[in-house]
């Protein structure tokens, strides 16, 4: 009894052979959001606990001390920068704004290590929670309008 050699099994539909290799760019997310880490809220809880004896010692006006940790929590939760392929949206505790990638002339490093967008009008807008390490992601989201520092030598 001799067995006839069999060919390896082939998939029934040759989709892999029919589709040419894709040279398209990887699909971008709709947006990226840069925030202050929520772990910072632990500091707010610590301030709240430490302020409690002082607040109750000077009752009722001492309760106003609670406004400090509440304001800090509000700032941490609200401050963010959201970038999409079309625009950049900045939101701080009291204000916000949007501008397109074409309006950005350059980026500048802030003294707080956050980046600032220098607009073509000359106005500088701080990009909260965006740091130098985030430049490659900003470059990808801008569609190449901002140069990628990792690709330059």
From TrEMBL:
This is PH domain-containing protein. It holds the Pfam family bPH_6. The keyword Nucleotidyltransferase does not apply. Keywords: Membrane, Transmembrane, Transmembrane helix. InterPro entries: CFP-6_PH (IPR019692). The keyword Ribosomal protein does not apply. Residues 1-10 have a biased composition (Polar residues). Residues 78-148 form the Low molecular weight protein antigen 6 PH domain. Residues 1-29 are annotated as: Disordered. It comes from the Bacteria. The chain crosses the membrane at residues 32-55, 61-77.
